[in-house]
Amino acid sequence: MQRRLTVDFSSWFDQKHVPQERFYREGLVILDANVLLDLYRLTPTARNQVLDAFSYAGSRLWVPHQAAIEFSRNRKRVVEERMSAFKQTGRLLKTATTDAAIIIEDAIEKLQGLRDRAGTTREWHPDEAGLRREDILARLNGVMDEAIQEFEALESEHDLHPQDMQRVDSLLLRIDDLLVGKIGSGYSSSELRSYVDEAHSFRFPNKIPPGYLDAGKESNLRAAGDFILWRQTLDRATEVAKKERLILFITKDLKADWWEYDAKGKLKGPRPELVQEMRDTAGADLLLVTLKEFIVGTKEYLSSEVSNETIESLGEFGEDLNSLLPETFRDPGASPNLLDLDRTAFENLIHYLLAHMGYHVEGADVGYRDAGFDFIATSMEDPSRTSIVQTKRHHRPVPVRAIYELIGVLRSRNEDEAIFFATSEFSPSATKIAKAEGIRIVGGSDLIALLANFGINATIDVSPSSVGYFNPDNDARGPWRPSDITSPDFRKENYYPIINPDDKAIYPPTGRAWRFPKIIVEELQAEGRIYWGGKSRRTPRLKSFFSESMFKKGEQR
């Protein structure tokens, strides 16, 4: 048999040789767990229209056993998460005017302090300017009324509450009726163990999609969930009794181990490896779509009755993603410096990244900075797990203090885990404590690599002067900064004279010793790493070069 590139490896060249309409009219329609869970987040009207659209697939509708498990496991948590989001938003709306008044008062206090330092003799009193808290609140009175009314209307549209999850709710009954006889079988214990081993020993280390981005989950079985679901999909595809097998897979998982992204961070389509594996294993063609794309397709090809409002509600999350990407990243040839971003732009970038990693981000619009972190991320694949997220644009290595602060927040809020994104690397002690406490840290070089997975090019360009490195003596090795070579830990063997450039013997200050043995200091002097500074030449300093610092790690210069 003669192989041809355009035939045997066609998934890398042409993924659209089968018209989309045929997938909707003839294909096996497969639902991921996150699609079913999303029904609990929708209003009753939108939910009914989506369920009606699913029913157009009839007997062609199918759910993998793994998806059914994940849906059953996470159903209650999705409703609790939605209710939590409503409560948080309600509190923010109702306290917004008071919070705004406090911010204005703080600004007035800063102005007063500036006036005092400037020594101005002009009279100016906030009370006379109508800037007392009572005056500010009076001006703000009613400004949030329409927003609160809209919130209350939105809240009234949702009919499912956590107490409903204690029993079989009406939505579950409808989903159950829709899927009767359409749920796949699970694997035996030996088969399951074999596939979990395959995922962790072969597929994940080689970044074979799907699922390798879940490799860090709390158990090997949970981490292999996407691969098991995919394996069950392949098995079912081989059973399709048609000469031309078509698989329409619907998911809200937007991670890069399912999708391919273009240079602007927009979805291009399924990973070619998935398309190829489907063809090689089952002789089938694959169309991977989001829930919104599927609903639009059923309206176009099957004449399903879905309102534009429902379609828009399904698309808000995906459409917001593109607006989150800072403008400087939208030029395909650009590699912006992350340190040039302001705080809001950097947080938006991390929000964008988390969404593509499969998280729903809560609170990014208002922030939780006063609570010691930036926002909450909930796994769309496993809504039972939430993470608090901290972001920092650091020039210097992140100190261990920042990790301890995040640990305190994590424990006080009783969240599952924490993720810390930074533009710099983490100090060795910070890294050690984070690992011991289960905090996921993403330092500068890892962040650059993670962004690259989603087609986003970036740099972390630290200028030497911004982190205290200069070159006053024009050293050929470049900018450096001085550090003390004395130690309060007095050791007799480290108390000896160092000869300065004027041939004078210089001893450590009283009660201190040198940090290094004499032989080491002599080597440092020979290498030109001891700097004597000003005219007295009585204070030796060790040169620490920028080129050898942690700032040079990864993409940092």
Q: Would you kindly provide a written description of the structure presented here, covering whatever features stand out?
A:
With 557 residues, this protein is α/β, with parallel strands linked by helices. The chain has helices at 5-8, 20-26, 33-38, 44-55, 65-118, 133-140, 145-156, 170-179, 189-203, 220-223, 225-238, 272-282, 291-301, 308-324, 343-356, 400-413, 428-437, 444-453, 518-526, and strands at residues 28-31, 61-62, 245-250, 259-261, 267-270, 284-289, 359-362, 375-379, 386-392, 417-422, 440-442, 480-484, 486-487, 498-499, 505-506, 513-514, 530-531, 541-545. The protein has a five-stranded mixed sheet, with helices on both faces. Helix 17 (428-437) links the parallel strand 10 and strand 11. The longest helix has 54 residues, at 65-118.
The best one-word shape is: globular
- Helicity level: 40-55%
User: Which structural class is indicated by helix and strand composition?
Assistant: alpha/beta
Q: DSSP strand (E) fraction? A: 5-15%
- Number of helix segments? 19
User: What is the averaged pLDDT score?
Assistant: 82
The total beta strand count reads 18
